[in-house]
Amino acid sequence: MSFTLAIVGRPNVGKSTLFNRLVGKKLALVDDQPGVTRDLREGEAKLGDLRFTAIDTAGLEDATDDSLEGRMRRLTERAVDMADICLFMIDARAGVTPVDMVFAEILRKRSAHVILAANKGEGSAADAGVIEAYSLGLGEPIRLSAEHGEGLNDLYSQLMPIADEFDKKAEELSDTVEIDVDLDEDAEYDDEGALPSELITEAKPLQIAVVGRPNAGKSTLINKIVGEDRLLTGPEAGITRDAISLRTEWGDTPMRIFDTAGMRKKAKVQDKLEKLSVSDGLRAVKFAEVVVVLLDAAIPFEQQDLRIADLAEREGRAVVVAVNKWDIEDEKQEKLRALKESFTRLLPQLRGAPLITVSAKTGRGLDRLHDAILRAYDTWNRRVSTAHLNRWLAGMLEQHPPPAPQGKRIKLRYMTQAKTRPPGFVVMCSHPDKMPDSYSRYLVNGLREDFDMPGTPIRLTMRGQG
Ligand code: GDP
Ligand code: GDP
């Protein structure tokens, strides 16, 4: 697996210039539907021997009205959430501006890895700005000239170790419990108010991906949702040309649907089948907020289905499992029981995710699928108040005290929710390194049950207090 790099910063600092340099001609527009603002561009980037996905937050240049800051913020947040690493660019000639500071703030809160670049760094006019960049509190800036191709070696040296880290992480397939989350201290901890799904708008549609093995019925399902034949379906694999996204309204909910059609094209390469399909699935999964894993009722839970579902969980997406072609099942009750049993056994990491039976062909079950998607989205955005959490933690500790390695009991002092999308919790404790995974799992399962959070990954980090 490779990583995704988002290039962010205020307009005109040189983001697109760098993007074009990294991506060359192999560029893909994220929004390839005519008439839609092309606010995020994505491309396969190359730097030395590194291969990664680059995201450019272009399109802000058009925004000249008051809404600029809001749009910029949303766009940046979206890019940051999609990316593993953010390259935050400032214009070294202009120095640090107030808008840059707004960005720095967003990044400090939201992104695990930030690389700071002071662009337009050629010549002495940039000297002062490069020094000023340190004041953003994001570490040492790289002096870049995107236009002249200078400083790319330094960029490479900063990306290398992080890329290695991601490769390693990708290899550890199993344990998803302990993933680092950033403590978002200013966030509001309230679990009241409008549901996130009620706030989905035209401007910010719900992003879903439909993933699954070739012939599961993805295209048929998307056609049914979109209500017109925009995708071609057929019995043979490989009809649709590229990975695409479509804007639609599904039962009044504005949605953008990412399809992994590329998966099918490559599915013909038999020996590399699984590897390729996973990396293609990754693309759609990365852009999605909710991932619908579509299974074929006749051959559910194949190796490939499991890998895709696992991938969606590891990427931290909300997951809904839909079992398709239910119209041709005879022994429905019996089958459903067997499906649920396989699900629990084969995908324990998706514990509690909804399993919906549908027929993409007839449209049966699609209402329930729609509702399950919205529910999963709400859970994924769920925020539990700190007070509530700590009351809960006290009860959990009493019921089942933490272990005492070498006679010293690990103390869990305090707990807070650091992140949403997916929910991420941090527990402050003594000796976080000695905490057994089984105890973390006890807490995660407890959170899931007691706060009703099915269908979303839950991250839990143990952190020592310095
Ligand atoms: P974006 O809005 O951040 O994507 O910025 P662009 O990539 O469109 O660049 C804005 C302007 O800055 C363009 O006129 C570029 O040619 C110029 N530019 C980009 N990189 C450099 C650089 O390294 N040095 C100089 N002098 N100009 C640059
Ligand atoms: P994709 O490769 O996942 O996009 O699958 P397609 O949408 O191309 O569907 C593969 C085959 O399954 C086609 O022949 C569809 O007509 C058929 N199919 C899709 N959904 C259903 C369904 O709900 N019921 C039945 N009986 N067949 C379906």
Automatic annotation (TrEMBL):
GTP 2 binds at residues 212-219, 259-263, 324-327. Residues 3-167, 206-381 form the EngA-type G domain. Pfam families: KH_dom-like (PF14714), MMR_HSR1 (PF01926). GO terms for biological process: ribosome biogenesis. Keywords: GTP-binding, Nucleotide-binding, Repeat, Ribosome biogenesis. GO terms for molecular function: GTP binding. GTP 1 binds at residues 9-16, 56-60, 119-122. It comes from the Bacteria. The keyword Acetylation does not apply. InterPro entries: G_ENGA (IPR031166), GTP-bd (IPR006073), GTPase_Der (IPR016484), KH_dom-like (IPR032859), KH_dom-like_a/b (IPR015946), P-loop_NTPase (IPR027417), Small_GTP-bd (IPR005225). PANTHER family: GTPASE DER. GTPase that plays an essential role in the late steps of ribosome biogenesis. Belongs to the TRAFAC class TrmE-Era-EngA-EngB-Septin-like GTPase superfamily. EngA (Der) GTPase family. Associates with the 50S ribosomal subunit. This is GTPase Der. It comes from Shimia haliotis.
